[in-house]
Amino acid sequence: GAGVSQSPRYKVAKRGQDVALRCDPISGHVSLFWYQQALGQGPEFLTYFQNEAQLDKSGLPSDRFFAERPEGSVSTLKIQRTQQEDSAVYLCASSISGTSGVVRDTQYFGPGTRLTVL
Amino acid sequence: AQSVTQLDSQVPVFEEAPVELRCNYSSSVSVYLFWYVQYPNQGLQLLLKYLSGSTLVKGINGFEAEFNKSQTSFHLRKPSVHISDTAEYFCAVTRNTGTASKLTFGTGTRLQVTL
Fold first, then answer.
1. How far apart are CA A77 and CA A21, in angstroms?
2. Using an 8 Å Cβ cutoff, are B57 and B50 in contact?
3. Cβ <8 Å between B96 and A106
């Protein structure tokens, strides 16, 4: 499979638990994005990596949210002490380059992880 | 900052009829424009994009969109829809700069195609 993959596809957590969501981008893609999609809404930006560097984390809603991409490929989004308002679909996307350009700026999305916090 | 408005939350249409899904955007800088489709329990799939050049762009599955800078619009059209086009459609923008940047999405339009 050449697409973006995410795991788990579904996660149910009790309020207060920590969760970790994984994203495997398309091989060789430099840029990686995380988005949060609440029910009935469009995706909203959380954070952006260029290789292993986290260049923009302005969309992270609180300090309970943490993301990493230590080797510049796989990324993990961690949510500590989950709250009910964290329930959403978390989408990961990758693009081939860190430079905006004709083809390279297209973001390819994974299927998402649906997080339900009880 | 950029923003996207999709005024129609739902668009019902009969099969083989034409459809237009509206998208307006706001930005203080030059942007790229995208339409994505989302089928139930799936991620987003790119339909088409406007980066530069011709303002009429053609995408997959027979969809096309026209960029209108003066009206800051990027409406999506299809001359004849199929049942399989039933899905959620998202318009998105990203700033046209030297580095990759986040997508800003609209709230989506649910296209419901019936017989």
1. 5
2. yes
3. no
Greater confidence (A76 vs A100) lies with A76
Question: Which residues of chain B are within 8 Å of residue A10 when distances are taken between CB atoms?
Answer: none
Residue A16: how many CB atoms within 10 A of its CB?
A: 10
* Per-residue model confidence (pLDDT) at position B29: 85
Q: Do A91 and A109 touch, CB atoms closer than 8 A? A: yes
Please say whether the beta carbons of A17 and A7 come within 8 A: no
**Residue A111 scores a pLDDT above 70:** yes
Residue pLDDT, tens place only, B55-99:
999 999 999 999 999 999 999 999 999 999 999 999 999 887 766
Phi-psi region of A55 (alpha: psi -120 to 50; beta: other; left: phi over 0): alpha
Minimal Cα distance from B50: which residue of A?
A: A102
Residue carrying the six token digits 């459809």? B19
**Which chain B residues touch A if contact means CB-CB below 8 Å?**
4, 32, 34, 36, 41-46, 49, 51-52, 90, 92, 94, 96-108
Q: Exposed, middle or buried: residue B114 (CB in 10 Å: 0-12, 13-18, 19+)?
A: exposed
The residue behind tokens 């990759």 is B100
| Alpha carbon distance A107, B46 (integer Å) | 8
